[in-house]
């Protein structure tokens, strides 16, 4: 990684693997579905979203949510990969003081390598001391507080995002694939 | 209550096709989303959800006009989420994206603003659900 912004040009990242073309991968669906969900107090946010959407036959979706609180909460930030296998990895989990109040969160729901539900969520939130923080929420560790939480989901129709190993970055990453049964 | 009947723009329409995409590293996210729309003959669209990371972020803040200024958020590797984004045709008819959202650095510091064209290169990935808007 070169010196930041000295030339006015944005910095570029050098991943360990060869650059793969094309740089943008897209699949198109003629139809989708919009769903409003209310997840109850006590539910895990990300696993709950995956379960509810899968029960509705939706395996890939974009989800928007905000407001509500958490009685248990943890998240990752980026972190230098000491092994050099990747340009970065996840930090140890952060555990901010609860209740945590959600400001805004965006979630992508898809499938992992074994076709089980997988989520990717980035959020901005307030901890119990009023600090505004941001990071990558951890599935199974964000428990919704009193009043529940509203989420709006847009399914991707007949397209799935499925995770598989990406040899350029050495991360398991979502890739759009056609032909999902939705 | 103020009279807001003047200056209001109302556009009726409906949503169309849904695009599900991934953008690989070192692609500007504004230009990448415009490329996705151009390749699929989409003139207008709304970002439904978008999550990923950028190397560094340059965000416009300050309310626009004379007060607008650019804020550099240094990475490497900022987590980002687009909260609002739309694509509209420019004067020549090409898709033009305006994207607003959030970034967070490795210290959990959070920032918000409009992503400045050409200055926000993807770091690991960007995952996107975008829907076509078809004005009447």
CATH topology of chain A: 60s Ribosomal Protein L30, Chain: A
Q: Decide which structural class fits the backbone of chain A.
A: mainly beta
Shape assignment of chain A: globular
Q: Which strand-content bin applies to the residues of chain A? A: 35-45%
- Tally of separate domains of chain A: 1
CATH architecture of chain A: 2-Layer Sandwich
What number is the mean pLDDT of chain B? 95
User: CATH class of chain A, please?
Assistant: Alpha Beta
Shape of chain B: globular
Uncertain residue ranges of chain B: none
| CATH superfamily (homologous) name of chain A | Hypothetical protein, similar to alpha- acetolactate decarboxylase, domain 2
Question: What's the number of domains of chain B?
Answer: 1
The end-to-end span of chain B amounts to 30 Å
Approximately how much helix is present in the residues of chain A? under 10%
Can you count the helices of chain B? 1
Q: What is the subunit organization of this protein?
A: heterodimer
Q: Which residues of chain A sit in consecutive blocks of at least 5 with pLDDT less than 50? A: none
Mean pLDDT of chain A: 94
Q: Would you identify the CATH architecture of chain B?
A: 2-Layer Sandwich
What about the largest sheet of chain A?
A: 9 strands, antiparallel
Structural class of chain B: mainly beta
């Amino acid at each position: 990684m070169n010196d930041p912004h000295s030339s006015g040009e944005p910095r570029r990242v050098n991943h360990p693997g060869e650059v793969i073309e094309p740089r943008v991968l897209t699949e198109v669906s003629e139809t989708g579905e919009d769903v409003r969900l209310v997840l109850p107090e006590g539910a895990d946010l990300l696993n709950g979203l995956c379960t509810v959407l899968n029960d509705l036959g939706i395996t890939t979706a974009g989800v928007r949510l905000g407001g509500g609180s958490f009685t248990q909460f943890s998240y990752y930030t980026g972190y230098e990969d000491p092994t050099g296998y990747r340009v970065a990895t996840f930090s140890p989990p952060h555990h901010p003081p609860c209740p945590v109040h959600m400001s805004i969160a965006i979630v992508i729901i898809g499938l992992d390598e074994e076709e089980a539900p997988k989520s990717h969520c980035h959020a901005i939130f307030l901890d119990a001391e009023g600090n505004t923080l941001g990071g990558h929420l951890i599935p199974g560790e964000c428990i919704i507080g009193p009043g529940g939480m509203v989420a709006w989901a847009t399914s991707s129709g007949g397209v799935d995002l499925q995770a598989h190993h990406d040899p350029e970055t050495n991360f398991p990453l979502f890739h759009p694939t056609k032909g999902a049964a939705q | 209550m103020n009279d807001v009947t003047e200056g209001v723009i109302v556009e009726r329409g409906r949503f169309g096709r849904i695009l599900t995409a991934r953008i690989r590293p070192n692609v500007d996210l504004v230009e990448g989303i415009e490329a996705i729309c151009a390749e699929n003959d989409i003139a207008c669209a709304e970002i439904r959800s978008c999550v990923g990371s950028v190397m560094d972020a340059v965000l416009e803040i300050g309310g626009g006009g004379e007060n607008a200024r650019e804020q550099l958020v240094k990475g490497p590797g900022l987590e980002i989420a687009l909260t609002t984004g739309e694509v509209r045709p420019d004067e020549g008819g090409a898709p033009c994206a305006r994207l607003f959202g959030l970034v967070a650095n490795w210290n959990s510091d959070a920032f918000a603003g409009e992503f400045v064209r050409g200055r926000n290169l993807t770091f690991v990935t960007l995952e996107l659900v975008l829907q076509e808007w078809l004005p009447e």
